Amino acid sequence: MIISKHKESSIKQNYFFIKGNLSDINTKYFIDKIEQGIREESALNGKTNVKGNMTSYQYFNSDPEFFNLTHLFMNYIDKNISINPYGIQDSWGLKETFGHYTQNHNHFGSLWSGVVYLSNANQPLVFTDIKEEVEAKIGNFAIFTSILNHETKNRVFKNETKYALSFNFAELSSH
Q1: How many CB atoms lie within 10 A of CB 103?
Q2: 8 A C-beta contact, residue 121 and residue 96
Q3: Phi and psi of 122, rounded to 5°?
Q4: Inter-residue contact 16 to 112 (CB < 8 Å)
Q5: pTM of the predicted structure, to 2 decimals
Q6: What is the pLDDT of residues 68-108, one digit of tens each?
Q7: How many CB atoms lie within 10 A of CB 100?
Q8: Are 111 and 85 in contact (CB under 8 A)?
């Protein structure tokens, strides 16, 4: 094998990162749906960057309650960020209990992504590239450019259970 060059570096990249809290979220509805989804054959428990329980990737894509929730984010994005036309790509629920965590990853291939917390846990989501954190508290959310790397700061401990919704939006093709 002859290697003529091996280069590793970083490049400057535009991004957005928005965090906040939704004061009115139907946590019971979404937690019940996640509990159902993680028991289905299509569940991805332990098979992804979520080292815990997870529904299938498109689990909430046609859920009207989920659309009502993401509609708020879409309105904000459309009014405040110059972005190409987009549509829902993935939307899943997760449940992490004792010892579970989310490993460092990004959502490359999507345009923008988000997370909404449905329960409280001592497990913040850390955006390693931009030194930002989102506490896992009911209603807390982050919407962000999909290329941003993120992970949980630690594993779930004690008797906590963390529930969250995650989603990706992709650029619509012009064809």
Answers
A1: 11
A2: yes
A3: -85, 65
A4: yes
A5: 0.90
A6: 999 999 999 999 999 999 999 999 999 999 999 899 999 99
A7: 22
A8: no
